[in-house]
Amino acid sequence: MSSAPSGPLDGFDAAACIDRLAVETARAVRGLGRRGAVVATSGGIDSSAAAGICVRALGPERVRLLRLPERDVGDASSDLALELAQALGADSIEEPITAALEGLGCYEQRDEAIREVFPDYEPSWKHKLVRSAPSASITVFSLVVERPDGTREQRRMPAEAYLSLLAATNMKQRVRKLREYTWADRLSYAVIGTPNLLEYDQGFFVKGGDGLADVKPIAGLYKGQVYAVARELGLPEAITSRQPTTETFSLPQTQEEFYFGYSYERMDELMWGHEHGTDPADLAARVGMSAEEVGVAYAEIDRRRTATAYLHAPAVVFSPES
Fold first, then answer.
1. Rounded distance, CA 208 to CA 197, Å?
2. With contact defined as beta carbons under 8 Å apart, do 214 and 40 qualify?
3. Which tens digit of pLDDT belongs to each residue from 130-163?
4. 118 shares a domain with 216
5. Residue of 188, 191, 197 lying closest to 173 (CA atoms)
6. 19, 144: one domain
7. Which of the 8 DSSP states describes residue 259?
8. Rounded to 5 degrees, what are φ and ψ at 39?
9. Which of 172, 217, 170 shows the shortest CA–CA distance to 193?
10. Residue 242, exposed/middle/buried by CB under 10 A (0-12, 13-18, 19+)?
11. Torsion over CA of 284, 285, 290 and 294, rounded to 10 degrees?
């Protein structure tokens, strides 16, 4: 008798997973009465794996891949997404969203929020948000700016400035989603969401932005499983070896420093242990942490679920008066 899996990759069969997700994706798209799938691709592992599954499910002729770059991120991600489209044999279109974001005041509001922390900030400076290290206390966020001479400085963000900056940058995800649904309406296709299990469970998405979709094929997969699926699909090595980023700020920024506080490999193990009731002392050696640190991580997983419940909540609809 085989023992129970001890981690998210223990016994994971990527080929079987792809077969299952392809069947379920095709069934879901047909069930919605749609003819194909629209996937916004950034060259990241999640959107690439989701696109590969859709091509396997529906055929490349019924998958439209969108590249939606903006000026803070640059063209590198779009170039990778084009390489993905060529590898999959799917049609791909690039539609930069910088002009739309300028018209909506995204960059202006962002700059105003940054100047609350760095009064001498200029729009040409690069920047990013970073979180405090995981602990038993609340998470705080700091702003990092890079001046023209290459020097960097980090200062803690007051709550009002932080929320204003976040609201501005969330426009990027919402404008991208607008373009996805515009193409979906035009083609009678379904919009495919690309969050993995960590992002979906922990609320690492924008409501009405990347959290909005008709089908979310990989929302049940740990990040390491997504990488395994992408490799099994034969996706370009430049994508399968790429580290996760937020694709939001002008300075390079990992998901670890912005949101999770841990590498995706460690976060996979922590989430797995939490979900399977693993005692922190039993998981500690596996993840290279103390039992107390694992306990802190478990508590933060629960706190994030509570804090982001609103993102998962559907609209509140009242019944008519009886």
1. 18
2. no
3. 999 999 889 999 999 999 999 999 999 999 999 9
4. no
5. 191
6. no
7. I
8. -130, 125
9. 217
10. middle
11. -20
Task: Please name the residue that has the structure tokens 């439209």.
Answer: 64
Tens digits of residue pLDDT in 222-265: 999 999 999 999 999 999 999 888 788 999 889 999 999 999 99
pTM: 0.94
Query: What is the rounded CA–CA span in Å between residue 213 and residue 46?
Result: 14
Contact (CB, 8 A) for 88 and 60: yes
Q: Phi then psi for 215, rounded to 5 degrees?
A: -140, 135
CA geometry: angle at 160 spanning 128 and 130, to 5°?
Answer: 25
41: Cα within 13 Å, side-chain hemisphere: 33
SS3 assignment, position 296: helix
Provide the pLDDT for residue 2. Answer: 45
Q: Which residue range forms the structural domain that includes residue 131?
A: 105-164
HSE, CB side, 13 Å, CA atoms: give it for residue 311. 19
Cβ contact 35:59 at 8 Å: no
pLDDT at 3: 57
Sheet holding 37-40, edge to edge: 91-94, 63-67, 37-40, 190-191
Q: Are residues 98 and 211 in the same domain?
A: yes
Count of domains in the chain?
2
Identity of residue 221: L
H runs (alpha helix) in the chain: 14-31, 45-58, 76-88, 98-104, 106-115, 159-187, 197-202, 223-232, 237-240, 255, 264-275, 280-287, 291-307, 309-312
Residue in the structure block whose two tokens are 């690439």:
48
Q: What is the CATH number of the domain that holds 241?
A: 3.40.50.620
